[in-house]
Amino acid sequence: MPKKPTTTKEAMIDGAFRLIREQGHEALTARSLAAYLGCSTQPIMYQFPNLESLRELAYQKADAFHSEYILADADLLGIGLRYIRFAKEEPQLFRFLFQSGRFSGLSMEDLIRSPEVSGVLAAVSAEAELTAEEAVSFFEPLAALVHGYASLIANNAMQYDPDAVRNALTTIAEGLEKAELVKKP
Description:
The chain is mainly alpha-helical. The protein has two domains: about 10-55, Orthogonal Bundle (Arc Repressor Mutant, subunit A), CATH 1.10.10.60; about 70-180. It contains ten helices and no strands. It has helices spanning about 10-25, 30-35, 40-45, 50-70, 75-90, 90-100, 110, 120-130, 130-155, 160-180. Helix 4 crosses helix 6 and helix 5 packs across helix 6 (about 90-100). The protein starts with 8 loop residues before the first helix and ends in a 7-residue tail after the last helix. The mean pLDDT is about 85.
């Protein structure tokens, strides 16, 4: 009778997520994960003959973690601030999610319409009382600003200053309202 596996598929996905969170997505190899989990590479290679399938499942776990984190605030400003704070608090996960080449070649509109952003777009649409198309137009400049701040912070190219970030986001949102991209209640 074969020995029952001691390292489950879920434990491997969880371990890959934690390894990426701590050391970055470049650190994920079968050997590094095996060392991290305290097992041999054999169970990993059995469950995931292709490391890309494990990387994809780790990505899905990281994306769900990120979405839950940023959507903990219901208002648009809070979502933007949490997105940027996530980059400060979880720089390895931020780089894995947004700077690992997954979205290469996509336009800003493609990114905004991607399934990963649907929860944020729904919040934008509901809060600002916009149609789906209006929400995309309103969200695009905000997304560029928020993501720019987050990228600079995640890569240690800029210090995190929550007050400056809040002021910048508020100023941009007010400018968009003046441009009549947001319906007034």
